[in-house]
């Protein structure tokens, strides 16, 4: 379990700019724990996660080089609730544990935990405070279409499957507006960095219960 560690749970909808915001905090020397990076690591070639997946689905979910064929795995779990639940039950505890291990190993004054589905997967229970990167749905659609080369309909489908903007904002303790330029973003990060440093210092000086 984590003791006396100040953790900021950073989240936001698709194309909201989570990575950009996280990297701005990293410029202050703050360590990042990225759920997406960890999710890839737990199914890397040679991992226990990949071995369990192969045992369940067979070698056809592997690429020629022995890496996981993500598209093939998606086809296996798409519209199959039993298989999807099995996969989630396998991977989520692995991802959660690895995130906690990285947080415990960190040495910065506080830690940014970047989790796209922070609220949906109830990982906000692991953090000290929550920070949502917010942009309008219209901006999400245009940025995702440009970034991923997908249709508007595809992006709208993704948005419909995610927690709504209002639900996310209602749960957020801190909000960053990412609809302006990088200088506005940098100033918001700088202000929050000072606040998090102060609150982290207060946390570490509290006596243990």
TrEMBL record:
Its EC number is 2.7.1.24. ATP binds at residues 15-20. GO terms for cellular component: cytoplasm. The keyword Transport does not apply. It is found in: Cytoplasm. The keyword Kinase applies. InterPro entries: Depp_CoAkinase, P-loop_NTPase. One of its GO terms (biological process) is coenzyme A biosynthetic process. Pathway: Cofactor biosynthesis; coenzyme A biosynthesis; CoA from (R)-pantothenate: step 5/5. Coiled coil: none annotated. Belongs to the CoaE family. Catalyzes the phosphorylation of the 3'-hydroxyl group of dephosphocoenzyme A to form coenzyme A. HAMAP family: Dephospho_CoA_kinase. This is Dephospho-CoA kinase. The lineage of its organism: Bacteria, Pseudomonadati, Pseudomonadota, Gammaproteobacteria, Alteromonadales.
């Amino acid at each position: 379990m984590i003791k006396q560690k100040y953790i900021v749970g950073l989240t936001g909808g698709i194309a909201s700019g989570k990575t950009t915001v996280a990297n701005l905090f990293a410029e202050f020397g703050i360590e990042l724990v990225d759920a997406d990076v960890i999710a890839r690591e737990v199914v890397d070639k040679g991992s226990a996660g990949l071995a369990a997946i192969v045992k369940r689905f067979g070698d056809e979910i592997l690429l020629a080089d022995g890496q996981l064929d993500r598209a093939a795995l998606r086809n296996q779990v798409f519209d199959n609730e039993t298989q999807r639940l099995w996969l989630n039950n396998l991977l989520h505890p692995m991802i959660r544990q690895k995130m906690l291990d990285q947080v415990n190993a960190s040495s910065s004054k506080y830690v940014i935990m970047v989790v796209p589905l922070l609220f949906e997967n109830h990982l906000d229970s692991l953090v000290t405070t929550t920070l949502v990167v917010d942009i309008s749905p219209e901006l999400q659609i245009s940025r995702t279409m440009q970034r991923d080369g997908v249709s508007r309909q595809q992006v709208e489908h993704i948005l419909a499957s995610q927690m709504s903007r209002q639900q996310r904002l209602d749960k957020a303790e801190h909000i960053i507006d990412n609809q302006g330029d990088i200088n506005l973003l940098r100033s918001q990060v700088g202000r929050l960095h000072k606040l998090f440093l102060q609150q982290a210092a207060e946390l570490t000086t509290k006596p243990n219960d």
